[in-house]
């Protein structure tokens, strides 16, 4: 399954459109959001259960106050409400009034709650949602840290829209963050929930549709056919009473579309991918299946693609084996390894099907040229080391390459160390997007100079910017790998901790080599397919062997099964 994700600007624009243009009163929208949250909450709790409801001054807080009212009226009367802040939004004030009219106490100080000395069954987090933009300090931080520290009995923590402290657009943590067991997300789901540290704070994510959830409609509002500017947008006449009014309203709406709703054009450009991408019934997965099914019948070994794996060095022999073995298992007709001579025997023993070219001190240019000429697809980097021979191989390959290439591991480190970015960019322009870089976070730090913790705080943004700068497809590897061609991004949700074992990345290069041997018209779809299939195979390995026991080599055994699941 794929879901479209939005950032905080888009969330605000959707709300604004619904309220200002579609004339849905904001209280009504809030009531809808709170009602869906209420319905979700009461699934798990009984009337006698003890609730602690937290709210701050914005509309996320107003949501929490509305939920408190609904719980109370439904008989969940054992609830304590804490409201922090001053400068309340209008809706927040209205919600407070309704609670006061019911005779409910609204506490203003955490100490008062602590003095009640209750073991809460459930805590509702309504401090901050998409409006959070700065570090959390003082009493807010104290409250969040207090909630996170509660244990035995640990209350069940439910966050409204977002766990407070998490940035909706990036997954940055603003100093501290609620550790939720469940997040009830209003309307579209937010990017920050699905990448970086987001998943470890969000817990289970439940999405509740409110307002406008039709992305095609929202794009039309913003005037978007792909590539069309909002200026060309046809915005509907709004609230028109006479033909004259209609014209004025259309102009007003048009201006709004340009100024405030143009960010809606890009809804759908960032997606989270769950489970096996081959099983989805949407047009993207249709295209992936069609491409994979196009493997010719009754071909010969030349028909099914040839890969050259430039990997391994003296002392590092496993990477080339894992990459080549995976590529061979992906259905490639022939796999050739270009590696240091010391790896020859081990490689032949574990993969007798592999063709091997070796070098000793440095790889002669003619050997490299022949290996590149042989291939339809090239892998460069696993276990290559960063010695002189590897450096020359990396530079020469970047200069010569004229077919799809997967660049990984030490090749990335060499590009970073020796500042080979011009060379990379030149290769990327020659290859028109058929160049994939697969850095993990540390390699990305070396490539960009951005510290790992900052990459982790905005993996989608960092990957997209890198991809845009060098015209490459970037697979930024992590527990939730981001795959992007600068305009669009997929965040892969499959995979497991068992894959955090040496060699998993080498296996990924082999999977990508196999996938790129098919004639994908959209290289980004090829890349996300490779990343996803690798992760799904990893999940199958974990299921059959356990996360602790599985080795990266075990992932290879399940790639075929993952590919068949469609
Ligand atoms: N517009 C609407 O009517 C709807 C809004 N909804 C809710 O409204 C939320 C967005 O509401 P808002 O835009 O009011 O924003 P939030 O309530 O998410 O946060 C903004 C509030 O928190 C304060 N704040 C921000 N950062 C702070 C910090 N570091 N320390 C202390 N205070 C801080 C601000 O001063 C403001 O009062 C959504 O996440 C969603 O929960 C939903 O009810 C759907 C409908
Ligand atoms: N916790 C995890 N959940 C899901 N996938 C993971 C996890 N840890 C690692 N992976 C995946 O395993 C692979 C590890 O690659 P890499 O870090 O290059 O390892 P190596 O260099 O040892 O081959 C990546 O594809 C990454 O996305
Ligand atoms: K929240």
Describe the structure.
Strand 17 and strand 18 (482-484) form a beta hairpin. A 12-stranded mixed β-sheet has the order 8-1-10-19-18-17-16-15-14-11-12-13, with helices on both faces. It contains 22 helices and 19 strands. The relative contact order is 0.09. The model is unreliable at 224-248 (pLDDT under 50). GO terms for molecular function: ADP-dependent NAD(P)H-hydrate dehydratase activity; ATP binding; metal ion binding; NAD(P)HX epimerase activity. In the C-terminal section; belongs to the NnrD/CARKD family.
Layout of helices and strands:
Layout: E1 2-6, H1 8-21, H2 26-42, E2 51-55, H3 59-73, E3 79-83, H4 90-101, E4 106-107, H5 110-116, E5 122-126, H6 138-149, E6 156-160, E7 182-186, E8 189-190, H7 198-202, E9 204-208, H8 215-221, H9 243-259, E10 270-273, H10 283-293, E11 306-310, H11 318-329, E12 334-340, H12 344-350, E13 355-359, H13 365-374, E14 377-380, H14 388-400, E15 405-407, H15 409-417, H16 421-431, E16 435-437, H17 441-448, H18 452-457, H19 459-470, E17 473-476, E18 482-484, E19 489-492, H20 504-516, H21 523-545, H22 552-564
Bound molecules: ligand NAX, adenosine-5'-diphosphate and potassium ion.
Ligand NAX binds next to α2 and α3.
Rounded mean pLDDT is 92
Number of strands: 19
Structural class: alpha/beta
Q: What's the name of the CATH homologous superfamily of the largest domain?
A: Ribokinase
CATH topology of the largest domain: UDP-N-acetylmuramoyl-L-alanine:D-glutamate ligase
């Amino acid at each position: 399954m794929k879901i479209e994700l939005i950032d905080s600007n888009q969330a605000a624009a959707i709300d604004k459109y619904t309220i200002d243009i579609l004339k849905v009163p904001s209280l009504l929208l809030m009531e809808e959001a709170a009602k869906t949250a209420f319905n979700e909450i009461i699934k798990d709790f009984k009337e006698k259960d003890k609730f602690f409801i937290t709210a701050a001054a914005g509309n996320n807080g107003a949501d929490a106050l509305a939920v408190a009212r609904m719980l109370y009226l439904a008989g969940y009367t054992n609830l304590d409400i804490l409201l922090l802040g001053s400068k309340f939004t209008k809706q927040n004030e209205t919600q407070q009034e309704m609670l006061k009219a019911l005779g409910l106490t609204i506490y203003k100080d955490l100490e008062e709650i602590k003095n009640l000395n209750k073991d809460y069954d459930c805590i509702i987090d309504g401090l901050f949602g998409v409006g959070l933009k700065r570090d959390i300090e003082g009493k807010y931080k104290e409250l969040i840290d207090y909630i996170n520290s509660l244990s035995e009995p640990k209350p069940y923590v439910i966050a409204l829209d977002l766990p407070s402290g998490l940035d909706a657009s990036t997954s940055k943590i603003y100093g501290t963050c609620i550790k939720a067991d469940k997040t009830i997300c209003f309307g579209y789901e937010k990017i920050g929930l699905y990448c970086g540290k987001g998943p470890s704070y969000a817990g289970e994510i439940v999405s509740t549709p409110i307002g406008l959830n039709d992305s095609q409609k929202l794009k039309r509002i913003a005037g978007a056919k792909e590539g069309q500017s909002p200026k060309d947008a046809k915005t509907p006449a709004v609230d028109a009473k006479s033909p004259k009014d209609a014209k004025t309203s259309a102009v007003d709406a048009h201006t709004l579309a340009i100024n405030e709703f143009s960010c809606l054009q890009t809804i759908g450009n960032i997606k989270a991918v769950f489970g096996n991408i081959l099983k989805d019934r949407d047009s993207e997965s249709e295209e992936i299946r069609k491409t994979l099914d196009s493997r010719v019948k009754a071909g010969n070994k030349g028909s099914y693609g040839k890969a050259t794996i430039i990997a391994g060095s003296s002392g590092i022999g496993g990477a080339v084996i894992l990459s080549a073995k995976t590529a061979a298992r992906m259905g490639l007709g022939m796999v050739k390894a270009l590696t240091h001579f010391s790896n020859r025997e081990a490689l032949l023993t574990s993969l007798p099907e592999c063709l091997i070219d070796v070098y000793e001190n440095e790889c002669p240019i003619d050997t490299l040229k022949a290996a590149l000429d042989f291939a339809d697809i090239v892998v460069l980097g696993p276990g290559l080391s960063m010695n002189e021979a590897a450096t020359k191989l990396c530079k020469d390959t970047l200069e010569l390459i004229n077919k799809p290439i997967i660049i990984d591991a030490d090749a990335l480190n060499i590009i970073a160390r020796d500042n080979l970015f011009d060379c990379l960019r030149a290769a990327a322009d020659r290859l028109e997007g058929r160049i994939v870089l697969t850095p993990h976070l540390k390699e990305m730090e070396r490539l960009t100079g951005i510290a790992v913790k900052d990459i982790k705080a905005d993996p989608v943004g960092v990957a997209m910017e890198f991809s845009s700068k060098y015209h490459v497809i970037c697979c930024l590897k992590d527990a939730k790998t981001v795959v992007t061609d600068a305009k669009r991004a997929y965040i892969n949700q499959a995979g497991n901790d068992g894959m955090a074992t040496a060699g998993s990345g080498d296996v990924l290069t082999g999977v990508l080599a196999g996938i790129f041997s098919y004639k994908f018209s959209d290289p980004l779809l090829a890349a996300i397919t490779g990343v996803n299939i690798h992760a799904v195979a990893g999940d199958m390995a974990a299921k059959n062997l356990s996360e602790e026991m599985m080795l990266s080599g075990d992932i290879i055994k399940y790639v075929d099964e993952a590919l068949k699941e469609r």
